[in-house]
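Friendly challenge for the regulars: who can give me the structure tokens for this chain first? No prize, just bragging rights.
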Amino acid sequence: MENQLNPDNLPNNLPNLPTRRRFITITSGFIGSLILGDRALGATKPVAKKPVVKKPVVKKPVVKKPVAKATSTPAPSASPSASPSASASPTPPPNTAPDAPVIGKASATGATGATIAFTAPAKNGGAPITSFIATSNPGGIKVTLPQSDSGTFTFAGLTGGTAYTFTVVAVNSVGTSSASAASNEIKTLDVVPASAIAIKKSGVALTLADIEVGKTISATNSATNTNLFVARLGEDLFKGYPTSCTHQGGPLAIQGKTLDCPWHGSKFDAQSGAVTTGPAGSPLTPIKVAALNGALYII
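First reply, four minutes later:
Bragging rights claimed.
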């Protein structure tokens, strides 16, 4: 049998209920359930809550790893005499003697003189060139130029009529270079004796270019202004002959390879002066002729 009670008439020993409108349904012999809107209460005995036992939290000890402190090694201080850039650069090679100069043209300037041109080397060995030295061959005559650039040597004291070559070296504080190549060969001028008489042709000194080998020409003794024949027997071999026949002194004339006398028909070899046709019985007396410095002289 169900009875519906007014909540306001409930006994005081009932649990406190919310202030909402309460509906209680009682089943015979039991207090069933209290319907509290959307909340239900249990039976007569309250539900005992189990105590919550909190487990102690064991804290793990925090082990701190040692932190390595960065240390810096101070750089060694540079010595006052050396800069960082200088210590990093490679050591330069040591200085050496210069390269050999380049030889130029040699020229004879007289019986005892010559000039020799040269060019300074491109590499001086790392030290300035202080001088150049030229040497003659033969003779070993030396001339020094105290300069560092190209130039020309002037030689004196050479021997007349002699063939020479020359070499040049460069000098710096380290040493002396190897010698240059030999120069061209020159021949110093001959020493013309004071007694030598120039031979002329048409008033001009007779030279090697005026007479071919194997030829005979007419010329003039510049001292006496008299005529003579000059024969060229070889490159450097000359002879002179008088212009009168040995028979009776008739005037001789060049006829090809002979010297002919118009008076009696005598003939002489134009190169040797020997009689080739009489009545002349004696050869022409030779006159000593020499080429000195390219010109012909009676000596």
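The two ends are 190 Å apart (CA to CA). Residues 3-41 form one domain. Your move, everyone else.
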